[in-house]
Specification:
Chains A, B: InterPro entries: IsoCit/isopropylmalate_DH_CS, IsoPropMal-DH-like_dom, Isopropylmalate_DH. Chains A, B: It holds the Pfam family Iso_dh. 2 copies of one chain form a homodimer. The first copy, chain A, contains 12 helices and 14 strands. In chain A, helix 1 crosses helix 11 and helix 1 packs parallel to helix 12. Chains A and B meet through strand 7, helix 7, helix 8 and helix 9 of A and strand 7, helix 7, helix 8 and helix 9 of B. Bound molecules: 3-isopropylmalic acid (2 copies). One 3-isopropylmalic acid sits at the interface of chains B and A.
């Protein structure tokens, strides 16, 4: 039987609850496919700040690096919001991404037929939306140098950051996106601001060059402001979107909200050859933490992405996805996706129902 | 009688058509309020590239600076898309903004009761949406230095830009936003990415400091990715939004598309003391240029903003706004906002109907 080591990073807020449920689902789906997991739980984010004083302890990064894949819950919370930058939970997440070299962040935004009414979009606009945003995750303005505070000629304080991309950074994320598009509906839209930014001009040039290696993929280019509009006007025009770190942060969240059910959406962050990082796109929801109200499906679906993209175990991944669909078909809903005529359940019970369907 | 000089910048595509109509409406509304205009038309964008070889001729900027307000149509088109940066129509627009020092860009996104069905959002989500995005327009990553192309340690090509804000830049845009919010529903949401970017940390700090001078305004702070979601989830939570140049570019376009009728939306860009720049938010729509199909209402409403914010002539502004509402109430629609049961008209006829209602 195949055996993998998984680092679990429960993190903050509802993180521990959803990770606990997702771990059970992952174990069962694995065992039914002859896969065996060794799990190791490590602290990250606010939990690590409270326990150890830093948002990403060295041991956590080391354990993550040595494992075959990393499954994370969520990080952050009001409690640490006023912390200085190096003591913010978010900084731990950025260090983890950089440390693992997970440059490609895959964020599906799919409107499930069972949940089309959750969307604030009209039914005919929302139904059938199935977008994959491929976001560059370890470069751009998030990590560019120089950055910091200083003063200008007038002696005033300034804050500054650098948006920067190199050819190899663009090439590797574009390659991932072309491959993803090829396995989907064969359409890739690269989003940039090449009418204003030099970093985007380089981006567009490289994507255009790479396109000649993927002739089966239909490529288009769109300015980010237009993309923000088109996602609302007609989201079905999009298949795969590739974009930089900050535009991807904004557009993937916008795309996810089109579905109206962000408690359902997983993500995968993959590296050149090391372990990937898999996490729900929702936050730590401190207001409902510990109340057994969280929707664990995004984390469960992140476990499916872990199997698919992280371990190359598509059968086990499909098993989990099918179990989630089946559970929705049987009418079970957490509070965030509840509607009249369905059965309201908590986090644990939702996990049990998924387990029953695996 | 009061007399003002107005620089008209028709620009490209549908620009000349909509400017011609808006000019007539402005003249009539003015004369009914005892205002007299001197108009001067100057080339900008692609039109200027074709005629003179640069996207913003010196004479155009000089004329604009000497006038009391500037009314622009639209710029850009496929024809010049492949031009080098300094020969792009967009570069002319950026030079015009910088040249006029119009640091505050006011972009209303209002769902009109007559057009609520145009929105792709559900009626109950869209109706009553009335957001003003105040975008910083002459700073940040659009203008920050250093910028350009170079090579990194590995000898690879890189493209880079600098996101930078100084205290006085943040203070002046925040002040405008507080004043705007005060005259609206008293709520200001400042959008940034202060959990990652130093430029945003400075932004948030200054907005927080200024808040103590505007105690009647309720201030909140939101990360840009969350704002992109919240605009779709529940747009009615927003009154006034203030944000930097690039986030404002993205979010104002997103907000405008919530209305489903971007052919209706005006904008105002104002400076410390010089003339303001007023323009529709839509583009030059080269595909329908010269066919009398364009919706002139966004430009007509931009003329109303010109009266209101540029010249301090609120009565004439209200006259135009009322005329537009009346024309919609009488059922006239251009193709972009047409629906069953209304009367389809072209650009000129729409202008005539507004004139009739002024
Ligand atoms: C928490 C924050 C640093 C992070 C980001 O901006 O990348 C989050 O918004 C995300 O998208 O995963
Ligand atoms: C044309 C372009 C340079 C411009 C911008 O990005 O500011 C446009 O998108 C706008 O919002 O007015």
């Amino acid at each position: 039987s195949r055996s993998y080591s998984i680092t679990l990073l429960p993190g903050d807020g509802i993180g521990p609850e959803v990770i606990s449920v997702a771990k059970d689902v992952l174990s069962l789906a694995g065992s039914l496919e002859g896969i065996d997991f060794r799990f190791q739980e490590m602290p990250v984010g606010g939990a690590a700040l409270d326990a150890i004083g830093v948002p990403l302890p060295e041991e956590t990064l080391e354990a993550a690096k040595k494992s075959d894949a990393v499954l994370m819950g969520a990080i952050g919370g009001y409690k640490w919001d006023a912390n200085e930058k190096h003591l913010k939970p978010e900084t731990g997440l950025l260090m983890l991404r950089a440390g693992l070299g997970v440059f490609a962040n895959l964020r599906p935004a799919t409107v499930l037929p069972q949940l089309v009414d959750s969307s604030t979009l009209k039914k005919e606009v929302a139904e059938g939306v199935d977008i994959m945003v491929v976001r560059e995750l370890t470069g751009g303005i998030y990590f560019g140098k120089p950055r910091g505070f200083g003063s200008n000629e007038k002696g005033e304080d300034v804050g500054f950051n650098t948006e920067i991309y190199s050819t190899s950074e663009v090439d590797r994320i574009a390659r991932v996106a072309f491959e993803v598009a090829r396995k989907r509906r064969g359409k890739l839209c690269s989003v940039d601001k090449a009418n204003v930014l030099e970093a985007s001009m380089l981006w567009r040039k490289r994507v255009t060059m790479l396109a000649s290696q993927f002739l089966d993929v239909e490529v288009s280019h769109m300015y980010v402001d237009n993309a923000a509009m088109q996602l609302i006007r007609n989201p079905k025009q999009f298949d795969t979107i590739v974009t930089n770190n900050i535009f991807g942060d904004i557009l993937s969240d916008e795309a996810s909200m089109l579905t109206g059910s962000i408690g359902m959406l997983p993500s995968a962050s993959i590296s050149e050859s090391g372990p990937g990082l898999f996490e729900p796109i929702h936050g730590s929801a401190p207001d409902i933490a510990g109340q057994d109200k969280a929707n664990p499906l995004a984390t469960i679906l992140s476990a499916a992405m872990l199997l698919q993209y992280g371990l190359g175990e598509p059968e086990a991944a499909k098993r989990i996805e099918a179990a989630v669909m089946n559970t929705l078909d049987r009418g079970f809903r957490t509070g965030d996706i509840f509607s009249a005529g369905t059965t309201l359940v908590g986090c644990k019970r939702m996990g049990e129902e998924v387990l029953r369907s695996v």
